[in-house]
Amino acid sequence: MLPPDPAKPHRTASTLELFFDLVFVVAVSIASAQLHHALSHGDFVHGITSYAMVFFAVWWAWMNFTWFATAFGTDDWLYRITTIVQMGGVLVFAAGIPTAFEQGDFTIAVLGYIVMRVAMVAQWLRASRGARELRAATRRYAFGIAAVQVLWVLFLLIPSGPLQIVAFAAFALIEVSVPVFAEHRRQTPWHPHHITERYGLFTLIVLGESLLASANAIIDAGHELESFVPLISISVLTLVVTASLWWIYFWPPHHRAITSFGRSLRYGYTHYFVFAAAAAFSAGIEVEIDVLTGESHLTNIAASFTVTVPIAIFLLGIWWIAIRENADRLVNIVVPIAALIVLLDPILPTPVAFSAAVLAAVVVVLVLHPPRDARS
């Protein structure tokens, strides 16, 4: 498993990588649905903390494979089989999300992670055989991943409650330290265009999930309301916001954001908030529909925050890691201010659709002010 040339032109995501991403549609969908139910019932603290924990596991499982694949992906039969085993682990983990979310019981989720981790460790050990000067880094990855997985097994002994949340946060910090530990002396190669394409494709998945979940909720609500006007308004809002988030995300040249190891860590880790926010957006739309149909007793302001907070987090996240360094002064003023306006929209004397108008205005500004490498 020799690392490919990171400067190789026209390297794109393989069909295996696209297939791998499909199983995460299941995990993201279940996590988003659980968040929707919690928020709709006004259980904000439990819902948000549980969602943050579960989505961290989803995001980190995807990260583990994605960065390995850009450095050592061979696409031979053994690599394919090992990757499919990891996909099985993701599906097992997804099956454990409801009990982890509702009861704090991570048993099934951890079992799924064990399956993923056994395959991931095998991949790193196989890569170490031909890694030469990168052999130490690949073995540190294998050791680090295996050691942290032991901690997650011990995590099952901690009862649900505040102590479990603290332990999860501590173990999560150890998890994200493994790449720093493994690559502090010599970094495994990554292909800038390939890795950023992979992040872009996952962004499309979570945005598509938001559209799908929102559309299903709107269709179901159509049987309960006499007037379709409110549902049409929410439909337009969802489409405009999702399209604007897509436009904003893909505006900057992402490959410029990972020119060093430190910058690649910032890019990869900040995407936790970007992905989680994009997936949470659909939960917010569903909460709005629940309020409209009387299935939730939240106030209009509280329900609106479940939509605007994810939008604001998404905007600030992508601005921080990709837009900021490729934009002129106007864009760097407009995007953060737009995030703030959207965040405060529920308490402003404006309709909720104002958020969609703000995002559309941001898109207009971006069209008129292209990124630096696109200017003549």
Helix share of residues? over 70%
Count up the domains: 2
Question: Taking Cα atoms only, what radius of gyration do you get, to the nearest Å?
Answer: 21 Å
The structural class is mainly alpha
User: And the CATH topology of the largest domain?
Assistant: I/LWEQ domain
The pLDDT mean sits at 90
> Could you tell me how far the N terminus lies from the C terminus, measured between alpha carbons in angstroms?
41 Å
| Biggest pleated sheet | none
Order of helices and strands: HHHHHHHHHHHHH
CATH class identity of the largest domain? Mainly Alpha
CATH architecture of the largest domain: Up-down Bundle
* Coarse shape: globular
With helices defined by DSSP (H or I, 4 residues minimum), what is the helix count? 13
Describe this structure in words.
It is a single chain. The protein is mainly alpha-helical and 376 residues long. It folds into two domains: 15-183, no CATH class; 192-374, I/LWEQ domain, CATH 1.20.1410. The chain has helices at residues 15-40, 44-72, 77-95, 97-103, 107-128, 135-155, 162-183, 192-221, 229-249, 261-293, 300-323, 329-344, 354-368. Helix 9 (229-249) runs parallel beside helix 13, helix 10 runs antiparallel to helix 11 and helix 12 (329-344) packs antiparallel against helix 13 (354-368). The longest helix is centred in the C-terminal third of the chain and has 33 residues, at 261-293. The model has no long low-confidence stretch (mean pLDDT 90).
List the helices and strands and how they pair.
Elements: H1 15-40, H2 44-72, H3 77-95, H4 97-103, H5 107-128, H6 135-155, H7 162-183, H8 192-221, H9 229-249, H10 261-293, H11 300-323, H12 329-344, H13 354-368
Helix pairs in contact: 1-2, 1-3, 1-4, 1-8, 1-10, 2-4, 2-5, 2-7, 2-10, 3-5, 5-6, 6-7, 8-9, 8-10, 9-10, 9-11, 9-13, 10-11, 11-12, 12-13
